[in-house]
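Tip: read the tokens left to right.
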């Protein structure tokens, strides 16, 4: 797929998640999963993440809350690392997870903290 939103999305996706991660995801795509990679790159990272009303930092914090509530640990870890690259602090990430605990439930926050700590350790921010 080539197009304006796809190219913009690829740029943002690489900046937030790292070129290595994105290139590996695209390389691993096959005939079955390639359309998903195209959709994610074009719509999520191209169309949505390029909107100007919210800065990347805020989008990252929103994603951390949503992925925690949805119990998506793999994506949460990736987005915690991306949040750090987008200028979020460890303290801001912690506050989002505490808010999840109050509004979405303590079990969600417990898992969110566990997964975020793993991601922070992997990037030596803990």
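Filled-in amino acids:
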């Amino acid at each position: 797929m080539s197009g304006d939103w796809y190219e913009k999305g690829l740029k943002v996706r690489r900046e937030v998640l790292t070129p290595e991660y994105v290139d590996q995801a695209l390389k691993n795509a096959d005939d079955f999963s390639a359309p998903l990679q195209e959709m994610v790159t074009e719509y999520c990272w191209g169309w949505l993440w390029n909107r100007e009303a919210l800065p990347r930092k805020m989008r990252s914090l929103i994603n951390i809350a949503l992925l925690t509530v949805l119990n998506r640990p793999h994506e949460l870890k990736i987005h915690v690392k991306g949040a750090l690259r987008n200028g979020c602090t460890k303290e801001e990430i912690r506050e989002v997870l505490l808010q999840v605990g109050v509004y979405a439930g303590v079990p969600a926050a417990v898992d969110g903290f566990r997964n975020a700590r793993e991601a922070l350790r992997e990037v030596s921010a803990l």
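The chain has seven helices and no strands. The first helix runs from residue 4 to 17.
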